[in-house]
Hints:
The protein has helices at 3-13, 17-39, 42-58, 69-87, 99-109, 124-136, 139-150, 155-162, 166-185. The chain is an all-alpha fold. The protein has 2 domains: 3-119, Orthogonal Bundle (Rna Polymerase Sigma Factor, Chain: A); 124-185, Arc Repressor Mutant, subunit A (Orthogonal Bundle), CATH 1.10.10.10. The longest helix has 23 residues, at 17-39. It is globular. The two termini are 21 Å apart.
Amino acid sequence: MNLIEKDFFCKIQEGDIKAYDFLFLSYYPCLCYYAKDLLKISEVAEEVVQDVFLKLWEKRSVLTIQISLKSYLYKMVHNQCLNYIRNHSTHKTIKTFSIEDLNTRFELLEIESSDSIFDTMLSDQIEKDLNLVVDALPEQCKKIFYLCRYQGHSYSEIAGQLNISVSTVKTQMLRAIEKLKEVLVKYQ
């Protein structure tokens, strides 16, 4: 892990929600794409990636990462996909992969690119753009996003607090993330 990533991850370990959000928004789309390639089911892939980010946040204070954050996240998603495949091996829509094939795919992803997103610092403009998007979300969607991302509540806690279903919370979070991804595209 380079110095910029170490500093960045230290912020996450200290509970900096903005740093965590930036990490989430930076890697969520590509991790979902990777998981979907393995699992073949978009909804399951998104759930696996969301679970990975949730685990990262919950265990942030005790994590020690020796490799790059990017590699670590891909490895977490990779392992979660393997677990899902093992636990749901009778599911007919999941393409069967050999463990060797999955490991080869992951090894290819470990190759570091020289233009890592962490080679540059989060600019004020990106932060302003993201805040504008969050502020422009519909009221319920914005409230759910804040409860989840800024206050760290689980989907079930938010559902109970707002007296709505967990699936409504998931749908609203996905809508918020899609809007935020639209802004981040121009910075990639």
